[in-house]
Design a protein that fits this description.
Order of helices and strands: EEEEEEEEEEE
Shape: globular
Helix content: under 10%
Number of helices: 0
Oligomer: single chain
Largest sheet: 7 strands, mixed
Amino acid sequence: VQLQESGPGLVKPSQTLSLTCTVSGGSITTNYYYWSWIRQAPGKGLEWMGAIAYSGSLYDSPSLKSRTSISRDTAKNTVYLQMNSLKPEDTAVYYCSAEGRRYYWGQGTQVTVSS
């Protein structure tokens, strides 16, 4: 299974970020797989942002719940992240991952929030 994140790279403060995780080699509806968004800001640890399950159930991070939305398109085998009201401290490498019988990660996409 391969995961490929894509996004704008540079976003201005207060704008909305939209990221795409395109999955190949497996289906996002495969039983018991959970598709997460995770980020890592410079000099900080990994932060789990939320997930969508194979069933479509959603799991939110309490700290980010008010600003993030995760969705999917099963026809495109793609998972999405939207995050609004961006701040400079949201600058990070954003990853998507799949956890189930095996664990898969994408290579990550850099997002910089700057005016």
